[in-house]
Amino acid sequence: MGIRNEELRIKNVKTDGLNFLAGEEIKNFSPLTPYSDNVCNFLNDFSAELLKDSRYRNFPDAATVAFFARAGNIKRLKKNFAGKNFRIGRGLAFHITPSNIPVQFMFSYFFGLLAGNANIVRVASKNFPQVDFLCEVLNKILAKDEYKKIREMTSIVRYDRESDWTKIFSSKCHVRLIWGGDSTIENIRKIPIPPRAVELVFADRYSLAILDENSVENLNETELNRLAQNFYNDTYLVDQNACSSPQLILWKSSESFHGREKFWSAVEKIVHEKYDFPPIKATTKYTNFCQNAIDFPQTEKLFKHDNFLYRVNVSEPFEGIENLRGKFGLFYENNFSSWQDWREIVSEKFQTLTYFGFSPKDLAEEVIKNNWLGIDRIVPIGRALDIGIFWDGYDLIGQMSRVIDAQ
Q1: Backbone dihedral angles phi then psi of residue 328, each to the nearest 5 degrees
Q2: What 8-state DSSP symbol labels residue 161?
C-alpha cells in the first residue's frame, strides 16, 4: 500500500525545534513535469531579484546561484532535456546539505524543483550570512501569488543534529540527497527511507588539475592573469574545501619550466590582492604541510611564496594519493608524463579534472580507455565550482524524476 497524500504533509508533525528559513510547511507535493513553465519563471524571477540587491556583491558564491538560475541557462538546460520520454517528478525530495559550501543548499533545491519535486532542504546548523541573504530573497519571490504552488512545495529548514527531524523527513520522502563527508553519509544511511525511495549521495571526493607548460608559457600578460584568476576562483575562493577544488597540479613539462613559474607568480599576485588570510589559516596550513610530510614519503621540496602559497613536489603518483590534501593555499605538484602511470591509482574518490592546454575530448577518452572508476567531470580551469545538473556522475534531473513508459 502506498503512502497517502496527507501523510506527507509536514504540518501534521509537531514542529518543535524546526526553524523555517524559507517557504513553509509542505502542503503540496503533487509532482510536476521537469522544467515546468512555472518553475522556470520562478527561477528567473529569483535570479533577477538577487542581482537587483546590491548585497550580492558581498558574496561571490551567491552570484553563482543567480547565474545558474537565469532564464538563458534554464532554457538551455530545458532544451537539452526535451524529448527524454514522458517524465514527472517523484514526489518529495529531502536534501541534507553540507556545511563547508554555504550556497550548496540552493543548488540542491533548484535541482529538486527542476525535476518536479516538492523539497525539504536541511541547511547546516552553522550560521552563514549568505544563507540568510539567499533565503530572504527566496521568501520575497515565494510570496508572489503566481508562485503559491511552489511556496507550498518548499521548506528550507534548520534543526539540530540531535533532533528526530532527519528520521521524520526520511520516512516520508521519495528522494533523499545526502551531501557530506563519508562518515556523515554512513550515519544517515542507517536511517531508513521508504522501499521505493531513491537515494543520491555526494561523498567526499578528490580533484586535480592538469596544465600544459608550453601553453602557459606562450600566454600574454592578460591571458596569464585570466588563467591565474580562474585558478584562484577554483581554490582560494572556498579555501580548497570543495570536493571539486584541485589539490594536485599535474604539469606536462617543458624543458625550461618557465611556464610553471609564470603561472605561480601570477597566482601569488592575485592572492596577495584578494585573499583574506588571518593567522589561523597560516598556522593550519603549516601544520597540515608538516603532517603530510610525515605521512607521505613521496612529498619532496617545499616552494614557499610567503605564507600565501605553498607548493610541494610529489615524486611520483602513488596509491592513496587522494589522501594528500591542502588548504588555504597548500598545493601539491607532479610532473606528468603519461596516464599510464595513473592506471592503478585513479579510484572512485576522484571527481573533477580541470585542465588548460588540453582537449577535453582527449581527456575523456583516457578515462574510458583506462576503465577508471573515478573522474566524473572534465572542465576548464575556472569552472571547478560550476555545479550543474550532471554531478558526481549522476544525471540529477533524470534520477529525481520518473519515466512513464507509454507504448
Answers
A1: 60, 30
A2: T
Residue range(s) in the chain whose domain bears CATH number 3.40.605.10: 5-203+395-404
**CATH code for residues 5-203+395-404:** 3.40.605.10
Where does the chain hold its CATH 3.40.309.10 domain(s)? 206-380
Give the separation between CA 150 and CA 232, rounded to whole angstroms: 37
Give the CA dihedral 388, 393, 395, 399, nearest 10 degrees: -130
Q: Which residues contact 60 (CB under 8 A, 6 or more apart)?
A: 237
**What distances in angstroms separate CA 275 from CA 223, 229, 269, 328, one per listed residue?**
21, 12, 10, 9
Alpha carbon distance 244, 289 (integer Å): 20
Angstrom distance (rounded) from CA 178 to CA 163: 17
Q: Which CATH architecture has domain 206-380?
A: 3-Layer(aba) Sandwich (3.40)
Instruction: Report the sign of the C-alpha dihedral through residues 119, 120, 124, 127, in that order.
Output: positive
What span, in angstroms and rounded, lies between the C-alpha atoms of 53 and 106?
17
* DSSP H or E stretch at residue 171: helix 165-172
Q: Which three three-digit cell numbers place residue 327? A: 588548504
Closest CA to 123 of 133, 401, 190: 133
Eight-class DSSP state of 145: G
Q: What is the reported pTM?
A: 0.86
pLDDT per position as a tens digit, 98-139: 887 888 999 999 999 999 999 999 998 888 888 999 999 999
